[in-house]
Description:
- The protein is mainly β.
- The protein has helices at residues 43-60, 89-92, 234-247, 280-284, 303-311; strands at residues 21-24, 64-69, 72-78, 84-87, 98-101, 107-109, 111-116, 121-125, 147-152, 160-175, 180-188, 200-202, 208-217, 229-233, 256-257, 260-265, 269-275, 291-295, 298-299, 318-324, 330-336, 338-339.
- Strands 6-5-2-3-4-8-7 form a seven-stranded antiparallel β-sheet. A six-stranded antiparallel barrel has the order 9-10-11-14-13-12. Strands 16, 17, 18, 19, 20 and 21 form a six-stranded antiparallel β-sheet that branches.
- 50% of the residues are buried.
Amino acid sequence: MGAALLALGLTSCAGLPQLPAVHPGTAHGRTGVIQPRAATAPGGEVAALQRAVVDVVEDVEPSVVQIQAGGNLGSGLIFDPGGDVVTNAHLIAGAPTVEVTLASGRRYAGRLIGAFAPDDLAVIRIGAGNLRPASFGDSSQLQVGDPTVAVGNPLGPATSVTSGVISALGRTVYENQGRTALPDMIQTSAPVNPGNSGGALADLSGQVVGMPTLGVTDPQLGPDAPGVGFAIPSNTVRDIATQLVERGRVVMSHRADLGVSVENVMGVGALVVSVDPGGPAARAGVQVDQMITSIAGRPTPSAGALAEALSELQPGETVPVVLVRPDESRTTIRVTLGRYPGG
């Protein structure tokens, strides 16, 4: 339980044993180009791979923008020709102003259309038309070992590019001090450098298959732990962004909801600090100051563990929940989970 999203104060990531700390890829650092390794491939194959990476950058670069939100610098993807841009919600959260710079260097003020923090996604709109939207691929078809290219625009018109492969699929990582679980994340060896958050993770056909969101830092090795980055799957990006564009909020989150707010009591459980009136927990009899120590047979020694467990359950499921009352007596109730409300 060693991974934690430092910049957002995240707690340990139980789903990533022995990984160092994770941080959002939102900052002011300079990034560079990583060339494909040539050690094990014949020269012709190396040249072809290099050419493929260059072609991907040429295809994807016009759809990647720089976003400056308060003191944060990051990236975004043009979602449609009419000026909608999708990015990470953590990049723009609380920012009084948002400025978007296109690959051409043109700058526009951005207006927030909607955000959905549980999936760390937001849509902003700029007063520009005839834009070139990103082409989204099907992230469900990804396989471990697939080559990837991460394209960001953190420093203005000069694009930042890194390359790697899909290292793992279905990872769960955390934000918001461990309370928000991001499930089904793509792990890639293409470094998510400072400022690449909200940009493009593309395959070699130029299709965007993910949105780079989180990088990893290792206090023992320095500010960057190479080869471990996380991206939101393109299918999630497209689904949530479409809802935000069409409705300004998410109406179908696909996430299970217990209907409580909790605080960490590390190593013990998730302490209930409020119960949503009429929600799943309230209907089942959950009360404030009770400790949730297990759900659906999974121990929940922290708020993060509860968030991860809920991210893997479905709305409408009826599951056992183990509670510890203030007098330390235990009880098990059954709760029919609701659907997480939209943003």
